[in-house]
C-alpha cells in the first residue's frame, strides 16, 4: 500500500477542512426585505361591533315608557307615552306592537309599529308592508349604508357606562344626527335629535318594564287621559271571510280553505289545541256526516293565539280520498263539503256541493 507523503497528507487534511468550512461556516446574514408600510388608523376611527341584546328594549305586553319631550325651536315641553299594546303571532312568529316610536328615524308619525327580536342576526326587526306583502327590516339599522353605529355610551366623566349603549346616526357629524341611549333592562332612556334648526330631546320620566316600576310613579290607567280601547287600535273584532274551493280528480278531491282578513287591522284568533282547521263531507239529502279530515288524528291540548295580517289570508289544503270515516268506498251521488276554522269561537264556511262522479 502506497504511503502518502507529509505534503500530500497536509493537502488532504486542508481539503477536508475546506469542505467542512464550506458546509459548516455560518452564512452572511442578509437584511430582511423591507415590508410595505402599514398605515394604522387613528384610534378614534377604530370601532368595535356592538349589539343590542333583547334586554336593551324589553318586549313584553304592557311595558310602557313616559318621556318628557323638549323642542328647542318652539320652546315647548310635552309628554310622550310609548307602550306595547299587542302581541300578535304572525306566521308562527311572535311580534310586539308599539303604539308609537316617534324618536326612531323614519317612524316620527307612524302608529302601531310591529317589532320582534331576531336571535340569529341579534337585531330588532320591524314588520312593514312591501309590494302587497310583508317584509322585515332592521329597526335600528347600522353600517355604512345607514350611516349609523352602535357604540358605548360615555358618562359625565367621559368613560363608558356599564350596560349602556348609544345608537348614533351620522356619527361623524358635529351638529346633526341622532343619539339614542339604551339602558339594559330598562330600554331607551334618552334621545337627542340635532339639526340646523335646533334640537329635540326625549328624557325618560317613568316606566313600567316587565312588572317593575322605574322613575316617577306612573299615573294609574283608570285615571289617565281617555284613550281608544287597545283592541280597537290594532286588533279587529270583525269576522274573517271563509271560502272553500275544491277540485275533483279521478280518485280524490282536493279541498282548499281560504281564510281572509277583509279589514285594515289585525284579526286575532285563539285556539285551545294544535288543530287549526277541519274539513267535513256530508250527504247532500240527509246531512249525514260521511267523512271528517281530523277523525283519527291526535291534537295536543294547548292554548295559543294567532293574528292574521290586514288584507291577508291563510290557506289550508287537504285531500279527500273518496272514503268514509270507516275507510270504506263511498257511493256515487251528491255531497256537500264545509271547511271549519277551529278557533275557540269556530268559523264555518258556506257549503259547496260535490257531485260524484
Give average pLDDT, whole number. 80
Helix-strand topology string = HEEEEEEEEEEEEEEHEEEEEEEEEEE
- Note poorly predicted spans: 1-14, 16-47, 222-236
Structural class determined from secondary elements? mainly beta
Question: How many helical stretches?
Answer: 2
**Helix percent band:** under 10%
**Radius of gyration over all CA atoms, rounded:** 36 Å
Strand content: over 45%
| Shape category | elongated
The biggest beta sheet reads: 12 strands, antiparallel
Head-to-tail CA distance between termini: 120 Å
* Domain unit count: 2
The number of strands is 25
Helix-strand layout with pairing:
Layout lengths: L5 H19 L39 E8 L4 E11 L2 E2 L2 E2 L1 E5 L10 E8 L4 E8 L2 E6 L9 E7 L5 E10 L7 E7 L3 E9 L2 E12 L2 E4 L14 H5 E2 L4 E9 L2 E9 L5 E8 L3 E7 L5 E4 L8 E8 L4 E8 L12 E9 L5 E2 L3 E5 L1
Key structural traits:
357 residues, mainly beta, Immunoglobulin-like, 2 domains, twelve-stranded antiparallel sheet, 7% helix, elongated, disordered N terminus
Amino acid at each position: 500500500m502506497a504511503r502518502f507523503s507529509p505534503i500530500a497528507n497536509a493537502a488532504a487534511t486542508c481539503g477536508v477542512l475546506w469542505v467542512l468550512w464550506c458546509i459548516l461556516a455560518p452564512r452572511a446574514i442578509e437584511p430582511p426585505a423591507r415590508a410595505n408600510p402599514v398605515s394604522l388608523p387613528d384610534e378614534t376611527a377604530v370601532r368595535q361591533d356592538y349589539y343590542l341584546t333583547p334586554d336593551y328594549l324589553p318586549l313584553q305586553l304592557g311595558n310602557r315608557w313616559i318621556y318628557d319631550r323638549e323642542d328647542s325651536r318652539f320652546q315647548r315641553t310635552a309628554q310622550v307615552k310609548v307602550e306595547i299594546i299587542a302581541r300578535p303571532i304572525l306566521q308562527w312568529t311572535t311580534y310586539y306592537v308599539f303604539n308609537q316610536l316617534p324618536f326612531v328615524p323614519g317612524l316620527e308619525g307612524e302608529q302601531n309599529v310591529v317589532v320582534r327580536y331576531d336571535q340569529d342576526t341579534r337585531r330588532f326587526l320591524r314588520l312593514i308592508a312591501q309590494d302587497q306583502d310583508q317584509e322585515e327590516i332592521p329597526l335600528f339599522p347600522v353600517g355604512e349604508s345607514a350611516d349609523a353605529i352602535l357604540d358605548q355610551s360615555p358618562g359625565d366623566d367621559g368613560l363608558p357606562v356599564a350596560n349602556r349603549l348609544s345608537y348614533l346616526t351620522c356619527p361623524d357629524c358635529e351638529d346633526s344626527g341622532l343619539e339614542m341611549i339604551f339602558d339594559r333592562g330598562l330600554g331607551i332612556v334618552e334621545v337627542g335629535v340635532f339639526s340646523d334648526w335646533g334640537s329635540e330631546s326625549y328624557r325618560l320620566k317613568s316606566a313600567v318594564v316587565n312588572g317593575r316600576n322605574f322613575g316617577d310613579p306612573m299615573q294609574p290607567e283608570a285615571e289617565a287621559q281617555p284613550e281608544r280601547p287597545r283592541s280597537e287600535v290594532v286588533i279587529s273584532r270583525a269576522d274573517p271571510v271563509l271560502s272553500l274551493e275544491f277540485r275533483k280528480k279521478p280518485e280524490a278531491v282536493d279541498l282548499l280553505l281560504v281564510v281572509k282578513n277583509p279589514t285594515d287591522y289585525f284579526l286575532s284568533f285563539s285556539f285551545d289545541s294544535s288543530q287549526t282547521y277541519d274539513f267535513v263531507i256530508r250527504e247532500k239529502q240527509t246531512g249525514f256526516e260521511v267523512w271528517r279530515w281530523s277523525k283519527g288524528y291526535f291534537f295536543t291540548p294547548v292554548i295559543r293565539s294567532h293574528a292574521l295580517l290586514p288584507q291577508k289570508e291563510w290557506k289550508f289544503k287537504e285531500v279527500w280520498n273518496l272514503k268514509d270515516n270507516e275507510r270504506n268506498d263511498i257511493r256515487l251521488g251528491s255531497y256537500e263539503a264545509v271547511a271549519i276554522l277551529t278557533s275557540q269561537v269556530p268559523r264555518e264556511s258556506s257549503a259547496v256541493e260535490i257531485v260524484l262522479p
